[in-house]
Every structure is written in structure tokens, then in C-alpha cells.
Amino acid sequence: MTLAGGNKTDGAVTNTGNGSLTLDNSTIGGTLTHDGQNLTVTSNNASAGSLAGNGNGTLDGTLTLTKASDTYNGILSGKGGLTIDGGTETLTNHQAYTGDTDVKKDAGLTLTGSLAGALNNDGHSALQDGSAVTGTVTNNDGSLVANGARLANLVTNAGTVTLNDSIVRDVSSNGGQTALAGTSAGTVTNAANATFSATGGSQASTTNSGVMTLAGGNKTDGAVTNTGNGSLTLDGSIIGGTLTHDGQNLTVTSNNASAGSLAGNGNGTLDGTLILTKASDTYAGSLSGNGGLTIDGGTETLTNHQAYTGDTHVTSAAGAGLDLTGSIAGRLVNDQYAQVSGPNAQVKNTTINNKTLNVSNGATLADITNNGAERFIPA
Predict the structure, then answer these.
(1) Is the CB of residue 216 less than 8 Å from the CB of residue 234?
(2) Helices and strands counted in the chain (H then E)
(3) At CA 132, angle to CA 130 and CA 137, rounded to 5?
């Protein structure tokens, strides 16, 4: 059967048995049920109310669904695409067509299978456990929820995106709200005016210019860069690489956080403790709050006034050290190596030295407790 040239079927079209159906610029008002041998949508496109059935077919053009309400279990291949312009369609199998799947405003997609092409969402898309999208997933102004899904790339331009226990290679948040929970991601970029949060899970690296929260044991394997007007909150999170803060604000909550090293010029607040595990950078900003800073590996350089009132603790870990050319408001507790050097270098509270302390070039200490350790203070 061929339906062509603007042909219109007011009700349902059913393709069954050994049926071979070609849709060539035709319109189906009701449900297209394909349980036959073949279905072809030509490059002249076609539309149907909804799509159902288990048969396989080919999309050389776009099939548009105007009032979707069914489940399609077959496989569609070809270079064409699928547009859901009304209602909600469920796709359960691997869809091999390489064109886009477009979900329009107020329309919906439930995916329990997979898509070979891109997914563009302006409506409501639900990616269920075991589903996958090989092409880029773009949320333009809709609502997208993924539970246990695999995504190649995610772009959020507006609307809301929620990923739970999913895997995504790269995330670009250009607007709207993106929330990840228990999700593994690659490179994450959060632009100005965008909001991003990750609870648990992991990322390869992160760059933030908007509002970002990393919480609940979330881990970034590489670097985290906070820049521009970026506001970054670390709430029980772990950063394996360098935390570079050149943005508007950095907050470490009372749940603490850790990073490999600390760099940048931006100011921030320590409500808890920031732990540096392999410090190797210079931080020129100023941190306030009632929290503290712990150096548990490597050497960190602080050049500005640190107004936080908690301890600056250099642990006994091999190679741990502090090079202070600025000042700290709280105590300095040194269990390995600390150097306080220069006319602007100052510890305004008690210094407790348990190993090696070098004070030179006009630096000042409020008072010192030297517990039988080496101490080098020039006359």
C-alpha cells in the first residue's frame, strides 16, 4: 500500500501480516499501527496521530506524531527523524534512524530503548533505566528526567534537567537548571545564568560561570575552575585536581570539602574545612568564615589576608607544607613544615609548632608554642 500526494486517512491505519506500507506526504488522523513486514516514510515526510506496533521500518524523511498515546516496540532505521508534536509516545526498542527526535512543547517522550540520533526536547522527556541516546541530548525549554540512562552529550539551554544514576560523557549547561544525582559525567561546563548541582556521582572536570553546587560526596577527578560571575558551593565534595577560584564566590559548607590544590584570586567563605591533598599552587584571594584550611600533602602558598577564624593546619603527611607571605586570622598548627616570610606575613593568633617552622624577612607571630621542634627565627 502507498498513501501519497497529500492523501489523508481520518481514522486509523493498520499494517499487518506481510503488509508493506509506504507513506509519501500523507496524513493519518488516528493511530498508525505497524505490525507488518515493512513501513517506509519517504523524504516527503508524513504524519500520524500516534504510533503503535512491533514491525520494523525505514524513515527517509520525518514522521510527525500529533496526538501520541501509544507504545512502539519495533525498530526504525534510515536518515530521517521522528517529531512528537502532541501527546506522549513510548519507544521501547533500539531506534536506528540517524535523524533527530524532536519533542515539541507540551508533547512527551518516554524512552526505555535507545536512540541513534539526537534528542531535542522542548516538552517532557523521560529516559528510563537502561535507555540510551547516542547523539546529543538538548533540552531547550522543557523538562527532561533520566533515571539510569546513558547519554553521549547533554546540553541544557533552558528548562530543567534531572539525571539520576546515569552516565553522560559531557555536560554543557547554558541556561535553566541541571541536577545530577549519583551520575557519572565527563566534562561539565556551567555557563553564566545557568544552575548546576551534582549530588554523589562524579565528573572528569568542571568549569563554572553560573551557580554550581557539588555535594553529597560528589567527586571531580580532575580540575574545578570557578570563573567570571561563578558562584561555587562545595558541600562534602572531593576534587582530585586543582580548585581554581577566580569567580564571584566560593563557599565550603560545614560538611567540609577537599581538593588537590588551591589557586586563583577570588574571595570565599569557609564554614567548614577545606583540605588540600597535593597542594602546589598559590592562592591570592581572601577566605573568611569560621572554618579552616588543612594542608595534607604538597605545599600551598597564601599571599593575601586569610580572615577565616579556624585553624590553618599543616599535617604530618610527608611533604606537607605552607608558604605564608600574607596573613591568617586563626591559629597556625604546624606538624610538618611552615614558612612565614616577608614584611606582610603574619599569624594573628597562636602558632603551635610541632616540627619545622621558618620565620624570616620581617614576618611576625602573635605568640608561639614550640613543642620541642626545630624552629628557625633569625635575630
Answers:
(1) no
(2) 0, 56
(3) 140
